[in-house]
Amino acid sequence: MSGKNFGEKEGKKRVGKGLKSTRKQIVEISEGVLSKVVDIVLFLVFFNAEFGLGGRPGPGGVYRARDKAFEDWEAISYDSIKRALSRLKKKGWVEVLGRGNKVTVQITKQGRKRLEAIVPFYDEKRVWDGKLYLITYDIPERQRDDRELLRRYLRKIGCGRFQDSVWLTPYNPTGVLRDFIGERGLSGAVVVSCVGKDGNVGQEDARDLVARIFQLEELNDRYADYLEEFGGGGKISRSKAIFDFLSILGDDPQLPFELLPDDWVGGEAYVLFRKICKGG
């Protein structure tokens, strides 16, 4: 084997190990929210635009945003960011505008859609029609794989398990379920029922019911712990604070504000999260 070929192979091995190490670091720091370099760079593009941390939103601005907000991500080098931006552009997830020192990077609608699929976003509006919806299904054992996929999908769209084969949500799921049901050939096996304006199921009113099904007390405790850990005014790790919040938010069904307990502190935690993101 020639020295050149050996050197090239050894170089590729080192690069491969470096990428694996970087991915591992991303997974650990982001609490599992992000797992790929391109995803973290897409997140940095959005983050820089949302909070204006890096000045001009070009590759250099994205790199500076990394330093200002995620001080423990040194493994994501400037060259790694440039390579990832090239891949993001090819996928249509970002637009790179301008030339030379006047380059700007903008996230596209497709990029935003990709980011929303991997990173939870806080819904500040939560429009609600005042009703609760039950999803019931009767899927035979021979289609148990479809049944499990349906359960996973129901969790993904924010439904809570009420009983065996019965799930509940305050948001009308008919539209988002229609395509899934059609693709899996489950027409007639899944039924969506509206509980009604009063939102009562049995002896429980809507607030008590969703608090039990979605385990809101435990979730509220996690938000309270977040406020205690990061709201005291001492020195904190910003990246840990950011992704600890996103980890909690990923488990939050983001129910209508009208259904939340009176002592709910998720909104306060979000305000603190925004403040930390902005460097406050």
What do these coordinates show?
The chain folds into 3 domains: 3-115, Winged helix-like DNA-binding domain superfamily/Winged helix DNA-binding domain (Arc Repressor Mutant, subunit A, Orthogonal Bundle); 132-211, Alpha-Beta Plaits (2-Layer Sandwich); 215-277. It has a 4-stranded antiparallel sheet with strand order 4-5-3-6, with helices on one face. A two-stranded antiparallel sheet has the order 1-2. By secondary structure, the chain is α+β, with helices and mostly antiparallel strands. The protein has 11 helices and 6 strands. The chain is globular, with a radius of gyration of 23 Å. The longest helix is centred in the N-terminal third of the chain and has 27 residues, at 3-29.
What is the total domain count? Answer: 3
**Arrangement of strands in the largest sheet:** 4-5-3-6
Oligomer: single chain
Number of strands: 6
Estimated share of beta-strand residues: 5-15%
Molecular shape: globular
- The assigned CATH architecture of the largest domain is Orthogonal Bundle
Number of helices: 11
| Mean pLDDT over the residues | 81
Task: Calculate Rg over CA atoms.
Answer: 23 Å
What is the CATH fold-level name of the largest domain?
Arc Repressor Mutant, subunit A
CATH superfamily of the largest domain: Winged helix-like DNA-binding domain superfamily/Winged helix DNA-binding domain
Which percent range fits the helix content? 40-55%
Task: Report the span from N to C terminus.
Answer: 57 Å
Query: What class do helices, strands and sheet pairing give?
Result: alpha+beta
pLDDT under 50 segments (min length 5)? 3-19
Largest sheet composition: 4 strands, antiparallel
Q: Could you spell the SSE succession in H and E letters?
A: HHHHEEHEHEEHEHHHH
CATH top level assignment of the largest domain: Mainly Alpha
